[in-house]
UniProtKB/TrEMBL annotation:
This is Uncharacterized protein. It comes from Candidatus Gottesmanbacteria bacterium RIFCSPHIGHO2_02_FULL_39_14. SUPFAM superfamilies: HAD-like. InterPro entries: HAD-like_sf, HAD_sf, PGP-like_dom2.
Length: 70
């Protein structure tokens, strides 16, 4: 029986920002893009899909976007 649930909404217990940043850097690097810290910080807290959509809109030309999403 579950007696308690802990929510870590501010990163006090688990600091997941750096591993998430590195994962996203790895993903966009596959497509020849560079995810800078400043671009990441503007979008902290978003889900991965919307985050990558915004990064794609900011960093790559339209024809390359179609190849990534396909």
């Amino acid at each position: 029986m579950i007696q308690a649930v802990i929510f870590d909404l501010d990163g006090f217990l688990i600091h997941s920002e750096l591993p998430t940043f590195r994962l996203l850097q790895h993903i966009v690097k596959k497509y020849g893009l560079l995810l800078e810290d400043s671009l990441y910080k503007k979008r902290i807290g978003k889900r991965i899909k919307p985050f990558l959509d915004e990064v794609c809109n900011d960093l790559i030309p339209e024809e390359k976007k179609r190849a990534i999403v396909a």
